[in-house]
């Protein structure tokens, strides 16, 4: 790992090489994968895994964040010949909170002209509905297969998901056309490595970052981005508040190989000095254009909060905890009108259609405590989100739906069932949910429990929660902990859904564990550095990396060692034959009712 | 917090006071609870929570580990007049691995004579079946109610559990008599604060500790015990291997207010130089007596592993991962006989009956990987454990059943369903399960997901997993992380089961959060120190402890603040009345189908 002056961490992960798989329909596309090489003694091929880390883990790519990442989509977009470059909206002082001089984050050098549609919608959904397979779609399809030819064991419970043995570009197209998946890819974000979000694909995770009124800087933000995707974040949301928002976001986008989402309302509120009542449609619309031209891939829009929903929160323990939701609720009450997000929703869709910005319909009334989970306010808003989804789809705009929040385990499935039913199977994107309120400081864990379950039930993307949730701003370590924790939740969900590729990594690591291939065990894990460090705290010697025991039991007691001795001994004693006879006879060693318990 | 020379952490937790509730049937019993005091502005009574931490958190109790804890059960045991003190087995050099001189952990000073039954079984089950309510039973019953009078909201899904609104001593008795619960309490462990383990009580957690051949010392072990129960461990298991086992265990027991479990096989194997084939029933039996006289409360016995089960593991990815299971499997194959644990099981029960040692029937064939979950070997052994349970019950011996291990989410419920059916609803005691194999270094999290779910489905006690699982020996921080993580899983399970008292703490903390009572939020959390530290990293000033905002959003953006403003404003606008009308009319603001979504 190389630490750049800007504290960027680049370079390959241990024993890993970046490999690129070309397209078939689009031979020029190069889909990045991470190949994890194993010890020769393993007599196994390398394991190829999904790789969201971008060029930063490719030693052959020179990284300079003031140049940004290479443009890989420009040619595809131009070839479609349905967009034009134009002058674009001039940056206004308000965009950066009127900050000046040394306090102003420098503009990203060499900004190019934005593009927008010349006519009809230029969204992946519009193409999909016309039967077109785009380069983005093939790119995303290849990623989903993780270089896999064989189909793994599929004994999961999918709750109605329909994950194919292999993902084809046409399958991606059809899922997007049906609204069951989105491919967030603003035409002004050509650095993007396309990916797809949907219930019938690998479960994805999002990492939030962003400067705030209280603290944190632009360079930290780009570093957090690179750091978050290094560990597996599939998308990031820039939730910056305070000043320098515009320039910071430009630096993030030009260096982001993953989709970037925002909550435009946050910047709009900054522009009116933080007074919700002073927000107007014109100012909000202008902010949408500003961010659309920069290349933001998805917008969180809290258009589902209706005036008549607000009283439903009156008896809640924690009221309205969504920032966007509370801002709009205050606006609605102050003006006693429906919000401009709701009344101007069609125009919002037109903007999204002209740049291919996906909508992430915000759950402004999500519960903020176990006490408020699944209440009337939450589900009333969800129904409105379903209505808005239909409107967005008439504009060919891609949509996902945001979900809770704080939900005890027994109320989680109802959230997925209702969301699928009310929102036409649009992808669900949930925050956690936290399954208890009593562990601030550990809410990455209280929420990983809920996230794994809601992912299993059908949530397409899980928004991470860090240990600092409710308490403070995540630092570098918190971001990593949040991302790894959510990779665990997403993978546990894929295993339980019976994803054809999910078990390959578990089995490879378990074989390494059983065969005492310590280095392989570290290298195959989600966080090789931590696994190796923990091991070395007790058994530092290099010799122990090949030792046929570990520190838990010591040499004499190692169950795996004994187990291997047993296997060898038993084989001498014809155990294989015995086992063989068992497999034939089925009930030879077991009562009949047990002979079919293989889960 | 006071740090003793022996690194013991004592003293109350923040804003907490130790309170004692007297018995009714047994007025002399004093049941410890932790009272968490809230800020006067809360206008709420203090919250009383379950307290497993023992006298160490009572400032009025002087702690000296060389004196051990006060004897609180001696009089109760004597009053039953069914046991005698006797000379006891002399300590043999082999008990401490023949270690001598400076390397020998000193004997605990002033050992008193052990007691044993003069005739019939002296187990809590024997008393319960005779209709007797013991002091231990009333003690445990009072603990379960956590000083609660009111019954909380019970909207959970209990999967057949039958948790009463309030736990009575008679209910504890009846659950023990039915075998659905155990109260582990060796008559030679008078320092014990009795507690009950069963599906119809609060979900409990166990923390493992123990010296190993590779590292760690006696003082560390007592400190780990005190540290583990400070954060909420309900029982501890001493899994020591290597030397000094006997003396270390004596120090642990004399200072343990919680039940202590062991795997006697580990010490027995030490006595034969780590050669499984050399184990004999006589040596094992002698080890059981040795530990019974010291006061071990429950024994893990791997008697369910039958000779014919071994071939069922031949095709596993990770073979036999249970240490006890692999040792006995090797013995069985070497002698080509059923294990002495199986053939002498009745004698094991007689020993347990004479000291009231609970049996924890070990799952020697539990899966060690996702690939091996719910396989024929695992469930074949589980059926044998069911048969052994019936035998133990004929001896009035209390029994719980150990469970996996590594299990993907979709295969977890089958484990509980089979265990309840095959083992007559004896309490289930599971390790995790880990829901994926790919995150060594984070297995407290991969397993917390499975632990919360399996607890919800009906597991009575969850054995913790620390971040060091598979990699090394847990240190102090790992033990705390493991315990807090498992308190989260157990509490999430209680919430989902609809335990009448579970939500009180969530709601109290959520109210504190909504009202910006930062100190209350910290003090009500499972780990006040970490919550406060994380908050102060971003907002150190004391003033911020009363600030009506936090670092995530800053002053202008705080959704809770805005939400409160909305509530006030809305109240002026008659929102309360609107809300009231909504509640009467039901569908006034919502379509009919939404009016019944209150989860």
TrEMBL record, chains A, B:
Binding-site residues for substrate, renumbered to this chain: 208, 237, 266, 302, 322-324, 363-366, 402, 429
Biological process according to GO: thiamine biosynthetic process; thiamine diphosphate biosynthetic process
CC cofactor: [4Fe-4S] cluster
Entry-linked InterPro entries: ThiC, ThiC-associated_dom, ThiC/Bza_core_dom, ThiC/BzaA/B
Pathway: Cofactor biosynthesis; thiamine diphosphate biosynthesis
Keywords: 4Fe-4S, Iron, Iron-sulfur, Lyase, Metal-binding, S-adenosyl-L-methionine, Thiamine biosynthesis, Zinc
Pfam family membership, one: ThiC_Rad_SAM
UniProt: Zn(2+) binding residues: 406, 470
Domain annotation ThiC-associated: ranges: 13-83
Binding note for cofactor: Binds 1 [4Fe-4S] cluster per subunit. The cluster is coordinated with 3 cysteines and an exchangeable S-adenosyl-L-methionine.
Keyword Ion transport applies: no
UniProt EC number: 4.1.99.17
GO terms for cellular component: cytosol
Assembly, per entry: Homodimer.
Family recorded in the similarity comment: Belongs to the ThiC family.
Purpose: Catalyzes the synthesis of the hydroxymethylpyrimidine phosphate (HMP-P) moiety of thiamine from aminoimidazole ribotide (AIR) in a radical S-adenosyl-L-methionine (SAM)-dependent reaction.
Protein's name according to its UniProt entry: Phosphomethylpyrimidine synthase
Gene name, Swiss-Prot/TrEMBL: thiC
């Amino acid at each position: 790992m190389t630490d750049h002056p800007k504290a960027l961490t680049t370079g390959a992960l241990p024993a890993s090489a970046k490999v690129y798989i070309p397209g078939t329909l689009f031979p020029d596309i190069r889909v990045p994968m991470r190949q994890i090489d194993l010890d020769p003694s393993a007599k196994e091929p390398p394991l190829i895994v999904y790789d969201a880390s971008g060029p930063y883990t490719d030693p052959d790519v020179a990284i300079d964040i003031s140049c940004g990442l290479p443009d890989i989509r420009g040619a595809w977009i131009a070839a479609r010949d349905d967009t034009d470059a134009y002058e674009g909206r001039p940056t206004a002082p308000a965009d950066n909170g009127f900050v000046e001089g040394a306090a102003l984050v420098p503009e990203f050098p060499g900004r190019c002209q934005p593009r927008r549609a010349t006519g009809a919608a230029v969204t992946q959904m519009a193409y999909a509905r016309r039967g077109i397979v785009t380069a983005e779609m093939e790119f995303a399809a290849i990623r989903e297969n993780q270089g896999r030819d064989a189909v793994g064991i599929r004994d999961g419970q999918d709750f109605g998901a329909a994950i194919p043995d292999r993902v084809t570009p046409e399958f991606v197209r059809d899922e997007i056309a049906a609204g069951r998946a989105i491919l967030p890819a603003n035409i002004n974000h050509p650095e993007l490595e396309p990916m797809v979000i949907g219930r019938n694909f690998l479960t994805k995770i999002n990492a939030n970052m962003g400067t705030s009124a209280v603290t944190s800087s632009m360079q930290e933000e780009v570093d957090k981005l690179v750091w978050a995707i290094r560990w597996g974040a599939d998308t990031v949301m820039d939730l910056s508040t305070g000043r320098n928002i515009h320039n910071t976001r430009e630096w993030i986008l030009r260096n982001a190989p993953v989709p970037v989402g925002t909550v435009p309302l946050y910047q709009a509120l900054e522009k009116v000095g933080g007074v919700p009542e002073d927000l107007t449609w014109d100012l909000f619309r202008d902010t949408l254009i500003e961010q659309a031209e920069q290349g933001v891939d998805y917008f969180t829009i809290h258009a589902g909060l209706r005036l008549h929903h607000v009283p439903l929160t009156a008896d809640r323990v924690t009221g309205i905890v969504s920032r966007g939701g509370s801002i709009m609720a205050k606006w609605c009450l102050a003006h006693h009108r429906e919000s401009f997000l709701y009344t101007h929703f069609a125009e919002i869709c037109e903007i999204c259609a002209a740049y291919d910005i996906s909508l992430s319909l915000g759950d402004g009334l999500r519960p903020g405590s176990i006490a408020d989970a699944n209440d009337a306010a939450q589900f009333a808003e969800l129904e409105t989100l379903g209505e808005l989804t239909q409107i967005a789809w008439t504009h060919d705009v891609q949509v996902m739906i945001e979900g809770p929040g704080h939900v005890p385990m027994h109320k989680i499935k109802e959230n997925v069932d209702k969301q699928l039913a009310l929102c036409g199977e649009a992808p669900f994107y949930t925050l956690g949910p936290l399954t208890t309120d009593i562990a601030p400081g550990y809410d990455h864990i209280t929420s990983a429990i809920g996230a794994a379950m809601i992912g299993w039930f059908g949530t397409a993307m899980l928004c991470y929660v860090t240990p600092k949730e409710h308490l403070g701003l995540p630092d570098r370590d918190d971001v990593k902990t949040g991302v790894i924790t959510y990779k665990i939740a997403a993978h546990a969900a894929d295993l339980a859904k019976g994803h054809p590729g999910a078990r390959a990594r578990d089995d490879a690591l378990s074989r390494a564990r059983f065969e005492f291939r310590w280095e392989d065990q570290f290298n195959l894990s989600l966080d090789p550095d931590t696994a190796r460090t923990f091991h070395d705290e007790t058994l530092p010697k290099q010799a122990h990396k090949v030792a046929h025991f570990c520190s838990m039991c010591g040499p004499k007691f190692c169950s795996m060692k004994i187990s291997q001795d047993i296997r060898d001994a038993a084989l001498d004693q014809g155990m294989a034959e015995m086992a063989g006879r068992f497999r034939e006879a089925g009930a030879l060693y077991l009562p009949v009712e047990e002979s079919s318990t293989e889960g």
